[in-house]
Structure formats: structure tokens, C-alpha cells
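note to self: dont lose this again. the chain is below, predicted strucutre after it. 379 aa total, dont forget to put it in the shared folder this time
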Amino acid sequence: MARKKTKKLENPFVYQGYEGPEYFFDRTEETEYILSSLRNGRNITLISPRKIGKTGLIRHLFHQTNSAKDDIICIYVDIFATQNLQQFVETVGRAIMEEALQREKSFASKVIDFFKGLRPTFSPDPMTGLPTVTLNVVPVQVEITLKSLFDHLEKLDKRVCLAIDEFQQIACYPEKGVEALLRSHIQFMHNVRFIFSGSRMHMMEEMFLSPNRPFYQSTQLMTLSPLHEDIYYEYARRFFEEKRGQLDQGIFQRIYRSFDGYTWYVQAVLNRLYEQERVVKDEQQVADAILFHVGSNTPHYQTVFSFLTDNQRSLLRAIAVVGIVKQPQSGDFIRSHNLPSSSSVKTALETLLEKELIYQTTEGYIVYDRFFAVWLKRL
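---
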């Protein structure tokens, strides 16, 4: 990944993308742990729910690697939208090409020469203006192309770190044996270190902890917890005081605990408060900031809700009202929320999990999108 210059932001509470170390905090131990593992030849599996800061940590890690002049090529690829092995190969190949285009010409030319056989198409990104690449892999050549990509990375004169986000997606591909195919290549690579990150915890744990799966015990596992509340408050307080304002600690605790410390939601609320307020010491200010985001997403929530069955809607709203439900099929829960039979709840629960509208934690089931949960409570 090319180095990114840190710029002064009008609003320091970033909740989309990575804007440099000035707007990234905590995670010191996690960063050092991953860096040490990669430098010592150990691949990492990073597991955490979405919205907790997993991608930001990887971006920060890559920034630190570049800043330390480790001479490592850092490549990030998100495969969440891929639906088969062909799309996986095209997405990884495109990420390699786009990273090369941001490096010195001599290095970029070598990579481009390698990719000529895949008929790359270059165009500027409409948002950033940076060059983007489209690759076309012939379906019958997918496995050969995948091997060529990995061989190319292995032979580069620079070390490579390839981070594959939402890695559990490969388990959903229609092709059989994708995990075994990838493992057969990766286990013999010495010049390339991998970060496999994923948000569907049960799928990731099954892939890397089950003895009958190809990636069993092939990496170091790491789970990501929410940022420390006290450290988070000091970070947030400093920015409000820099504009001669104030962020009450009790109010911050209310925000942090309302969303269980999930970074994206806390940042989103703080972003709105920083935009609208100088002194934050009233709970109504927080409520207004939360409702701003809920209102912005209301058309989407209405659409999602309309496509659910009555049983699914009832169960989803009941979980939102309670907050976290340990046993959604229990008689007490079903009676208190006027839900149908236990078997109907079980069917609805499976569908909501599959659609990722709810999420199973060690404490119980929650609505995945916390702003959606607020919307559901207000129905």
C-alpha cells in the first residue's frame, strides 16, 4: 500500500476509511502483536464483528510498516462481494495491480508486464481519481491464474503482506475444494505473509479450528475487542477541547455503552456531535445525534423490514427491544413478546442469522446494525 499523507481534518471523528495515525488510537498491543508475527513468518487470522475497527487496524498496520521502512509491499483486498473463485482471483489480481501503480515506475512496469495476459483495463476512480484496474480471467484458466498470481508475489524482490478481508466468503463459493486449493499454494509461500480477517466468527473459527478443514492450525488467531473506554474518552475529549469545547465524561460513557464500544457507531455519533455542538453535556444532544443517523438510514431500514415475513419482523423487533437475548426459543421470551411457536421462532432465527440482520455473541443474540435496533424500538 502506498504511503498516505496525514492531513488536517475538519472533523476528527472518522468513521469511514483510514486517515492516518493522528486519527487512530489505542490498538498498540494489537499492532505490535501482528507486526511481530508477520516479521517472524507467522500468518494471522483476525476475527471480529463488523464495525469494531478491524479494517482500520489493518490499514494502520500497513501505514506503520511503510513508516518503518520495512520495504514490504502491503496489499489489502476485501472479498465480501465476491461470489465465486473467478471473482476472487480477479479481485486479488486487481488489488495487486492497483498497489503496483502507486509505486515506483520500475516496479510497476514489472507487475504490469506480468498482468498483460489478463487483458487489464485501466480507468480513473470516479471518487478518488486514482487509477483502477479491471481484469478478465477466463473461467477455464482460473486455477492456473491463481497459481500464477501467487508465484508472481513469491518471486518479487520485496516481501509481501497480503490482507484478505471477509475471508469466510470463500466457504460460500459454489466450487468445491476452494479452501484446500488456497491452502495448497499458501503453505509453500515464504516471501508472502497473510492476514485472514473475517466478521462471521462461527465460520472463521470453523475454518481455522476444525481438524477436518484445510486451514486448521495454520495461523495465529487473534480476536479484536472494543477500544478501551478510558483511552477512547481521552482521545475524544482532546479534540473537543482543541476547539475550546467540552465533552462530558458521563455523556461519553452513555454513547460508548449504548453501542458496547463498537467503534463505527461511537465515531458516527461523535462526528455528528462535533459538527453540531461545542459543549456536549446533555443526553438530549446524544439522542439527537443518534436519531440523525437513524433518520438517514430509515429508507433502507423500511425496505429491509418490508421483505421480511411477519414472524421474522416480530422476532427481530423483540430482540431489538430486549437488546440481547440469550434464549430466543424459551417459553418466557416467546410469551412476553407474543411470538409464535418455538419451531417458528427457530426458523425465523435461522433466516435472520443468514441475512446477517442479527448476530450471535457469547452473551446472546443482538441486532447486527445498532442504528437499525434503535429504529426497530421506535416502531
